[in-house]
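Summary for the steering committee. The consortium agreed at its last meeting that each partner would contribute one worked example illustrating the joint modelling workflow. Our contribution is presented below. We chose a case with several input lines so that the handling of multiple components could be demonstrated. No manual editing was applied between input and output; the record is shown as generated.
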Amino acid sequence: MRIYVYGKPHDTGDKFDDYLDPAKTAVISIDMHRGHLDPSPECPCPAPRAREIVAPIDAFHTQARALGLPIIHVRSVVRRSGVDDINGIPAAWRRTFPLHVGPIPNSDGHAIEGSPWTELVTKVAPEDEIVETKRRLSAFYPTDLDFLLRNMRVETIVLNGGFTDCCVLNASFDANNRNYRVIVARDLVRGTDDNLEAAALAMVSLHLGLVADSADLLAEWSRRKAGRKVA
Amino acid sequence: MRIYVYGKPHDTGDKFDDYLDPAKTAVISIDMHRGHLDPSPECPCPAPRAREIVAPIDAFHTQARALGLPIIHVRSVVRRSGVDDINGIPAAWRRTFPLHVGPIPNSDGHAIEGSPWTELVTKVAPEDEIVETKRRLSAFYPTDLDFLLRNMRVETIVLNGGFTDCCVLNASFDANNRNYRVIVARDLVRGTDDNLEAAALAMVSLHLGLVADSADLLAEWSRRKAGRKVA
Amino acid sequence: MRIYVYGKPHDTGDKFDDYLDPAKTAVISIDMHRGHLDPSPECPCPAPRAREIVAPIDAFHTQARALGLPIIHVRSVVRRSGVDDINGIPAAWRRTFPLHVGPIPNSDGHAIEGSPWTELVTKVAPEDEIVETKRRLSAFYPTDLDFLLRNMRVETIVLNGGFTDCCVLNASFDANNRNYRVIVARDLVRGTDDNLEAAALAMVSLHLGLVADSADLLAEWSRRKAGRKVA
Amino acid sequence: MRIYVYGKPHDTGDKFDDYLDPAKTAVISIDMHRGHLDPSPECPCPAPRAREIVAPIDAFHTQARALGLPIIHVRSVVRRSGVDDINGIPAAWRRTFPLHVGPIPNSDGHAIEGSPWTELVTKVAPEDEIVETKRRLSAFYPTDLDFLLRNMRVETIVLNGGFTDCCVLNASFDANNRNYRVIVARDLVRGTDDNLEAAALAMVSLHLGLVADSADLLAEWSRRKAGRKVA
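What follows is the complete predicted structure of the assembly.
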């Protein structure tokens, strides 16, 4: 299968076969919610570059479900009282990110439980699973994602969503440290900008796992489900 | 104090005063051991760019100790049997990093308990602490670093060592998620190359905490120890 | 204050003053939901002995809130799909507990998200917090309780609820290992039976923290809030 | 196989076959070190009741190794500086246990790294593994035991050592919460006293897993290794 190593295409041959068994793989979609993607000026933590991957992620999920892969949506939610963020120890990005992008008017509204900002923009099928105690950047701490993956007997995770250079990269590190095989779907993630997106994908490809196109992953899983040998 | 936001200098004014209390800060030095830094061709996981920061890190640690800050050295160690890496579920970098740099002849020797590759190249003072159950990339999982920092009642950590775009960045994410205030000492870290080093520092500066020069940190701590107002 | 050491009353004098600062204390109430407490024969995991502490816990919480202490309700919830329990790796108690009490007809319904069995029987005030990713016995793993307590800068936790010899004891161990000071409200917990309840309280009192009556705790906190010296 | 449910013998039939596959099982021996077992009056945390199980544990380990089971020794070790215990946030037992047993003269010496008190009294074979960042009561937090077990692809753990009602029970809870199948070797553990030992075993048998005699476990594993049907 074709992967990308520091941005350059590379054919894996059969060297990463153990990454590609659909029966042991779950797709994890990170923070595709209105708090990042809503077009309104009230959007509390805007990630407008990721709007263009909503439809492609939906299409990928549809095909992955058809192949029997579980889809797990991870979303940031903090308690209404704000005790686990702005009224507790506030997340660092609230203070650092504005140094780069300027003031974020409604950032206090980010991820508040029960608010529209936590609604997923991508489609959620009845059989999908949701993890919603992501409180900071990690999909793993302090959530039950690892516990969930163990129960599913998953060994490989395929990540999509946003920011490539923040929560997606963080999930890649965390999954790697917990011995999951990590694949990032290169066309289904978006970063802060082109530069940091490419750098984050390069880091994944060198240290953490595979970077691949979603179409190649789907083709690979289909072939394996059909019992055919890898091309 | 001067920090760097996406590579550009920025004066914090007093907006990050809570990051700069030496009484609540620990310095964490990551993987400055012979397994990365030894000049021999047998070096199992070479990070030659980091050799030039050995002396500067030692100097920084000497001054930080004089100001009363604890120094914690984190190093990768895996069991002699290899059960927690090459004879268990091998670390992904063993398979992905060579796709970029070519074969790494002695990589199986990396971090083996009791081998010379685990020896720290930087100086360890009797009062320093060591964390040595780093098994993969994270300084936090599955180590006792978080437990140690709680016992020390530390709130801010200052990171140095290598790779900026791998274990240092991973430690920055992990510390951030656990609510520590994160500072990366910009001149005391080295990455895979200039590009990924700069990108990793940019990611820290936008999402995770502060990027600052070690001399500025020392000056700031000295001023505060002396009870003088921040410049 | 009076505590109980292996069942015997003991006056602490001022030796445990650091356990008794209301400003650093949170009350944690464990699994006081219909899945344990409902009187119907459908109750999926009956703990009838704990029904008698519903009103006393409510009264304790009312007084604790009045003194400014946060109340955290922890409840077991598993995903509708059952993937994190009966359709994943089933909890051991489902197989072992019936060896003692006989078949539990509706145990598959236990803690299913959105079902009435997850409803709290005790009162929840608007300012209370809820932790609801308790998937097995622990209140800490894989939940965000530790993360929440850090944000609250809590150092002491006071436990009530059920089972004394199961989830309450488990929470006591977990909190102890994470360096929280642990107090179990002796009159506000119930165990499998008198014997195991007393044994669990003895274990807490020897290894983990303090066992005290709720009235004594309230009196102690009141005195301290009023700035009066401990009796 | 014969197990004990709340102290009463019970024949499992084939209902717990999944617990008994030697290929997926590891033996975990907890804190059989001189800090608990040394007969001298200087012993910093005496657990004299466990001295009588040293030889039986050694014999069990010898036979388990012959059947191919890995042995993992977990021992308490704290840093020389005391920063992660007496000079940090001291363990609660240091203050509570003496309320029951009277002053423990040398308790400050408990588990100090490099001291003789951390030496294992049971035999350690070259192929055994050691976990030695147990800082409090748990064998799992903040150690790398879970990480190690994942690398070993272990699903069942068999516990021996001491105290039944403290660190052994804590390990049983932790392993259960992480979805390991838990077996406690009833004849190879010792508690604070007979009462708490029996109560802890009862708690394990009701909520956490199986309580069985070591001879029965060995017989069962032998039968399975030989491909013979369970009796």
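Chain A touches chain D at residues 147, 150-151, 178-179 (CB under 8 Å). The longest helix of chain A spans residues 194-208.
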